[in-house]
């Protein structure tokens, strides 16, 4: 059992390379296959190569969680002294050694189950969603590599080993977002995600160095053991640097702008990377190193302010979007900010509990959105409506997911969101944060509950109710959603949806029925008030967008408060101007100097060539003139 973490990481890693190398191997059947038939066979092989190892990793993760997992949720949130795993060697460096340790404790065991289950659901779902995609083998292989990298982050016992998985995960995100690279917007979204997250990772790496040097070791257990003896300055510096990487990976203010654009990738990737696993990595890191963050009060205040701004701002942005996937994307930013707020309030248990339930219901919502887009052929809610009769299974599953998102009982989100709100309430009372930060965090959280109820209800009504606006469209170009003429999606897409609906509805019971009645009642009432306001506006005119209730704030919310425009004006355009200046300088000065020296050499050679024209008389005349000059000089000087 000590090798289970290693096997769980290696199986999808091997599957990734096998999928890339073996899925398109020559298949000898005695007859020539058409390209379409060959692609179909390659896709089938790639699917089996990806699904079987992921299933095995899921079984290993579940086995590890059997003795560890829910102890984190039902206990005090501390990591036990013993963990399942082993060290596979040590890399000596010029400074601190790197320990190649993989282990599963209470926290990592339960996160391993989330990662593998969502990855398996996405792999199965993608078989139907990308059935005719000629690049499906590379797509499934990159999902396997991503799964392996995320499991490495979860099970790593050393900060630098964790960082390897952290960066590989970012590379896979770039490759998967840009899967349909023929569309320029997709390739730009992939580059944007890569650059923004890398910007945060610079601070993350330096934070690892500061924390490791302060502890004298990069082993996570040693670092946490040395936290009480570290200076406050070291802890604040290290945790603030780590927070940069957390903000990038978990799409938190101010590095959140990449996530909505990343919806350009295939919908299953949105479910895998940008709802349940990759974006959860930043929250996991704070929970993993929570004693270090808790010992740095200024960092906790910064985290609280960023969480407050992110949760309310992203929720308002979601309320004004017409693209269904962008609604869910901004919802993800908002819900991750809830988790960050729970951590800032001092409860890593509540934050991880919400991370788990969110992983279930948000993956469900994205897969349901994929089924809707697969049926309609568009991401826009203006082209949807009345789909509850045509897509009954998807309608039921998405209703469960949206109820969990709103925090309505008995869905899972009700219990986890109540735990976070209760932690924020305690932070206001006990003063674990500064008064201003605690009040800002709690106030924004309560306001976000109402806005969440509003945008979830708006998406539900505009997608499944009202008049049907589905128009039969021609087969789209490669890189866009497929249009099908059936009432429901293929079975490979529906089975993961149905299976994810169960944890989205029931996973909240895993943490025990510990509900703060007052806080829970306030949360439900606020969510219903937001939902009721949207319903009233929708009933007035079912064909109009209920987002009009925002009034003059609608356009700023739709543009996500112009943060992208500000970044473009402050950073992108100056960099482009500087780049053009460098190009012109290089062309006019550097290359100009090279070209000028060439022209000078050619001019001088032309002058010398005049004396070397092959005229013998000229040579003799020059010789005699030289002799004469020498003779005259000799006479004069003597």
Automatic annotation (TrEMBL):
- Bilayer topology: Multi-pass membrane protein
**Listed GO MF terms:** oxidoreductase activity
Record field: transmembrane: 6-24, 45-66, 107-127, 139-157, 163-181, 202-221, 227-248, 269-290, 302-320, 327-345, 351-373, 393-416, 436-456, 493-513, 519-538, 618-637
Q: Which UniProt keywords apply?
A: Membrane, Oxidoreductase, Transmembrane, Transmembrane helix
Task: Reply yes or no: does the keyword Ubl conjugation apply.
Answer: no
Q: Show where the NADH-Ubiquinone oxidoreductase (complex I) chain 5 N-terminal domain sits.
A: 92-139
* Superkingdom of this protein's organism: Bacteria
Which stretches make up the NADH:quinone oxidoreductase/Mrp antiporter transmembrane domain?
Answer: 156-424
Q: Does the keyword Cell inner membrane apply?
A: no
Which major enzyme category is it? oxidoreductase
Provide the E.C. number(s) assigned to this enzyme. Answer: 1.6.5.-
Locations listed in the record: Endomembrane system; Membrane
Q: What InterPro entries does the entry give?
A: NADHpl_OxRdtase_5_subgr, ND/Mrp_TM, NU5C-like, Proton_antipo_N
Q: Which PANTHER family match?
A: NADH-UBIQUINONE OXIDOREDUCTASE CHAIN 5
- Please give the name of this protein: NADH-quinone oxidoreductase subunit L
Specify the taxonomic lineage: Bacteria, Bacillati, Actinomycetota, Actinomycetes, Streptosporangiales
């Amino acid at each position: 059992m000590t090798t289970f973490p290693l096997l769980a990481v290696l199986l999808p890693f091997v599957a990734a390379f096998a999928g890339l190398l073996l899925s398109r191997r020559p298949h000898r059947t005695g007859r020539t296959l058409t390209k379409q038939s060959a692609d179909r066979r390659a896709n089938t092989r790639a699917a089996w190569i990806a699904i079987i190892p992921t299933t095995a990793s899921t079984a290993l993760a579940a086995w590890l969680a059997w003795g560890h997992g829910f102890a984190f949720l039902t206990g005090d949130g501390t990591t036990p002294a013993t963990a399942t795993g082993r060290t596979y060697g040590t890399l000596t460096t010029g400074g601190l050694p790197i320990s190649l340790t993989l282990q599963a404790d209470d926290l990592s065991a339960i996160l391993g189950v989330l990662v593998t289950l969502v990855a398996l659901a996405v792999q199965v779902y993608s078989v139907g969603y990308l059935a005719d995609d000629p690049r499906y083998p590379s797509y499934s292989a990159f999902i396997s590599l991503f799964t392996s990298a995320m499991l490495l982050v979860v099970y790593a016992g050393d900060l630098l080993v964790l960082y390897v998985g952290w960066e590989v995960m970012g590379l896979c995100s770039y490759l998967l977002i840009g899967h349909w690279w023929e569309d320029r917007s997709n390739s730009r979204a992939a580059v944007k995600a890569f650059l923004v997250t890398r910007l945060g990772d610079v601070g993350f790496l330096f934070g690892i160095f500061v924390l490791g040097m302060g502890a004298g070791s990069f082993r996570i257990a040693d670092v946490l053991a040395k936290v009480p003896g570290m200076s406050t300055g070291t802890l604040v510096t290290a945790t603030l640097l780590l927070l940069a990487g957390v903000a990038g990976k978990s799409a938190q203010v101010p590095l959140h702008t990449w996530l909505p654009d990343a919806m350009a990738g295939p919908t299953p990737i949105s479910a895998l990377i940008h709802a349940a696993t990759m974006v959860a990595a930043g929250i996991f890191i704070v929970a993993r190193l929570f004693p270090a963050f808790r010992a740095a009060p200024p960092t906790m205040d910064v985290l609280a302010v960023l969480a407050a701004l992110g949760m309310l701002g992203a929720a308002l942005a979601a309320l004004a979007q017409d693209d269904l996937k962008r609604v869910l994307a901004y919802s993800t930013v908002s819900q991750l900010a809830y988790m960050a707020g729970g951590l800032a309030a001092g409860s890593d248990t509540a934050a991880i509990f919400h991370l788990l339930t969110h992983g279930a219901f948000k993956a469900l919502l994205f897969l349901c959105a994929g089924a809707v887009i697969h049926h309609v052929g568009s991401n826009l809610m203006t082209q949807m409506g009345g789909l509850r009769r045509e897509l009954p299974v998807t309608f039921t599953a998405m209703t469960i997911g949206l109820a969990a998102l709103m925090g309505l009982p008995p869905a899972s989100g009700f219990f986890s969101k109540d735990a976070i709100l209760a932690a924020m309430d305690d932070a206001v009372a006990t003063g674990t944060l500064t008064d201003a930060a605690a009040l800002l965090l709690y106030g924004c959280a309560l306001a976000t509950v109402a806005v969440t109820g509003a945008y979830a209800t708006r998406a539900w009504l505009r997608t499944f109710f009202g008049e049907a606006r589905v128009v039969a469209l021609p087969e789209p170009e490669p890189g866009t959603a497929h249009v099908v003429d059936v009432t429901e999606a293929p079975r490979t897409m529906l089975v993961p949806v149905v299976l994810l609906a169960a944890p989205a509805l029931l996973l909240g019971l895993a943490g025990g029925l510990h509900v703060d009645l007052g806080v829970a009642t306030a949360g439900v009432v606020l969510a219903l008030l937001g939902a009721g306001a949207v319903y009233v506006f929708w009933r007035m005119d079912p064909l109009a967008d209920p987002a009009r209730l925002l009034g003059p704030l609608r356009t700023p919310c739709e543009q996500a408060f112009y943060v992208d425009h500000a970044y473009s004006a402050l950073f992108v355009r100056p960099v482009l101007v500087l780049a053009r200046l460098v190009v012109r300088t290089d062309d006019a000065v550097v290359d100009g100097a090279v070209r000028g020296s060439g022209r000078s050499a050619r001019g001088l050679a032309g002058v010398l060539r005049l004396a070397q024209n092959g005229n013998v008389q000229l040579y003799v005349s020059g010789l005699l003139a030289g002799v004469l000059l020498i003779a005259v000089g000799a006479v004069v000087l003597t």
